[in-house]
Design brief:
By secondary structure, the chain is of the alpha/beta class. It contains eight helices and seven strands. Strands 3-2-1-4-5-6-7 form a seven-stranded parallel beta sheet, with helices on both faces. Helix 3 runs parallel beside helix 4 (106-134), helix 4 runs parallel beside helix 5 (155-175) and helix 6 crosses helix 7 (214-225).
């Protein structure tokens, strides 16, 4: 299926590594011009250079999304590369200290909200006027299954991701007549570098070799971490493919949705 993304310009925040880098590479494979964002210049440029080396088109921008002035410079730089940004993927964020309800602090909650929710608000507010003028745009917020199935630990993170899901629903209604769609993607248990390290550490405790095949590690360890009906974790490529579809003209009637990529973990409808 041709997703009709050739020539579309996509800014992916927090794409210097991990899920964000996978999203940037996935959009580039579909023909989009990708603006890779991060706070580490070397890592961010490395992702952009890798995309270019594989035949894609990419630029790199740097900025701290918790600072208004840096976001303003970032937005201006992103728009200056090609004159427009058609697609915004608000991926930057993440969890903070591993607190629970006996240790959690209000400043941790404030920092988590700023890092996840307000960062997305700042960048979206900067790019939305131009999208409205051109009557076309895509905003995709990366939340988490923790936003709808919050665990006992890291309560600040679950609350922040829930706020992003609510923010998506509100913005989708506000811009629906402007040719802009707004959706959330909520990943569950995904095979990132951090997860791989945690799984292999747990597998070693069960007697598996350090270089054991991933399939063996996953089978032995996944039930200790999550109850996934599919019996496996998701891949970065699966997230990237889902986002490429939502970013495309093919998904023009999907807005305000929260797409859960969780292998069936969500118990609701």
């Amino acid at each position: 299926m041709d997703l009709e993304l050739d020539g579309k310009v996509a800014l992916v925040t927090g794409s210097g590594k991990g899920i964000g880098a996978a999203i940037a590479r996935g959009l580039a494979r579909e023909g989009a011009i990708v603006i890779v964002h991060g706070r580490d210049m070397a890592k961010t440029e490395a992702v952009a250079e890798d995309i270019i080396a594989k035949g894609g088109r990419a630029h790199a921008v740097i900025g701290d999304l918790t600072r208004d002035d840096e976001v303003e410079r970032l937005v201006a730089a992103a728009q200056a590369f090609t004159g427009k940004v058609d697609i915004l993927v608000n991926n930057a964020g993440g969890s903070g200290p591993p607190e629970d309800w006996t240790t959690t602090r209000t400043d941790t909650w404030a920092a988590s909200y700023d890092r996840n929710v307000l960062a997305a608000v700042r960048v979206t507010a900067g790019l939305l006027p131009a999208m409205r003028r051109t009557k076309w745009g895509r905003v995709i917020n990366i939340a988490s299954l923790a936003g709808v199935m919050p665990p006992a630990g890291r309560p600040d993170y679950g609350a922040a991701k829930a706020a992003m899901i609510a923010m998506t629903a509100s913005l989708a209604k506000a811009v629906a007549k402007d040719g802009i769609t707004v959706n959330t993607v909520s990943p569950g248990t995904i095979h990132s570098d951090r997860l791989d390290e945690a799984f292999r550490k747990a597998a070693a405790g069960q007697g598996l070799a350090a270089n054991a095949p991933w399939a063996e590690v996953q089978t032995a360890v996944l039930p200790m971490f999550a109850d996934v009906p599919m019996g496996r974790v998701g891949t970065l490529e699966e997230i990237a493919d889902a986002i490429a579809f939502l970013a495309s003209p093919r998904a023009s009637y999907i807005t305000g949705a929260n797409l859960r990529l969780d292998g069936g973990m969500w118990p609701g409808v």
